[in-house]
Write a structure and sequence with these properties.
alpha+beta; about 45% helix; about 10% strand; globular; binds glutamic acid; five-stranded antiparallel beta sheet; about 300 residues
């Protein structure tokens, strides 16, 4: 792997990242140093390549929506999971409630807040937070993942908008559990502390069809992984998903903590940490790194002559 390439793209990305801002609507996230930028790539033969701030802990935020969707599909099945959550990109910001209120009876997809809160309400009666935490550690191959109490309390103290979404969901009969319990699990999952390296591990498991290639253990069914990767591709980068799919071309999910999880099918998992965000909530430096890596390493899912694992 071209370690020099990683160093170079991170250096470039750091310059561009100066233009963005951290997610100040959750005060604890606003305090994060926006100059951080790190990338980690894990390949199927167990090698990991890192550059920049790849081992700094930050909160997973919306990337946890991928874990929750996968667990919901495993536990509740396809029909029940998508009974009251759609599979279409919304084209709106992640915390929008406009379509949900005016033109639709259910959230557009599980990668926006309304969809993820609905999924969390399914999960409340299925699985405890502790089990979700343990499973996230396995998926990310990172036993150090834990709840970041500071971020959890900071978000719970500034939860008005998500409460509004949750009450709207309740009024439409979409929540399976109380507003309080659904939001609590949702915010706990968003507050898990990961690194770019943990996200790369998770990406690798998804790239390998749900199997941890190091231990050989199957963690997710094939159909679950296929569903999750497709939703990541179409809806994973907020209302920037279309442009990102054209420019980078790999299923990805971002979070307002600055993380991006990317899956290069049958080849590698990529994790990014760069808390300086654009207006849509995506890491500016992270997107730059992924665009450059995609071009140089032919990562786009429709690129020609791609070597397989
Ligand atoms: N916890 C964040 C929220 O609900 C997650 C948003 C995100 O990362 O997109 O606002």
């Amino acid at each position: 792997m071209e370690e020099m390439l990683l160093e170079h793209v991170v250096e470039e990305g750091k310059k561009i990242a100066a233009l963005g801002k951290t997610a100040t609507y959750i005060p604890e996230l606003g305090r994060m140093n926006k100059d951080y930028l790190g990338v980690c790539i894990c390949t199927g033969d167990g090698q990991c390549f890192k550059s920049g701030d790849a081992d700094v802990r930050f909160t997973i935020q919306s990337i946890s929506k991928v874990v929750s969707l996968a667990v919901a599909l495993e536990r509740c099945g396809f029909e029940r999971t998508f009974d009251r959550v759609g599979m279409e990109p919304s084209g709106d910001s992640f915390d929008s409630l406009i379509k949900l209120d005016l033109t639709s009876d259910y959230p557009s997809n599980p990668m926006i807040n309304s969809g993820a809160i609905a999924i969390a309400s399914h999960l409340v009666s299925e699985v405890s937070f502790e089990r979700m935490l343990k499973f996230t550690r396995k998926l990310c191959m990172d036993e150090e993942i834990k709840l970041d109490e500071k971020v959890y309390h900071s978000e719970m103290g500034h939860i008005s908008r998500n409460k509004a979404i949750a009450y709207l969901l309740e009024s439409k009969g979409i929540l399976e559990n109380s507003v309080e319990d659904s939001l609590n699990l949702y915010v706990q999952m968003c507050s898990l502390s990961v690194t770019a390296a943990s996200l790369a591990g998770f990406g690798l498991v998804l790239a390998c069809d749900g199997v941890n290639p190091i231990t050989g253990e199957r963690l997710l069914h094939s159909w679950v992984v296929q569903t999750v990767k497709t939703i990541m591709l179409t809806c994973g980068m907020y209302d920037g998903s279309g442009k990102f799919a054209v420019e980078v071309g790999v299923p990805s999910k971002s979070g307002v903590g600055g993380g991006i999880l990317s899956v290069v099918d049958k080849r590698m998992g990529i994790g990014i940490f760069g808390p300086s965000l654009d207006r849509k909530g995506n890491s500016i430096g992270g997107q730059h790194v992924l665009q450059k890596l995609s071009a140089k390493l032919k990562l786009h899912m429709f690129a020609d002559n791609v070597p397989e694992l």
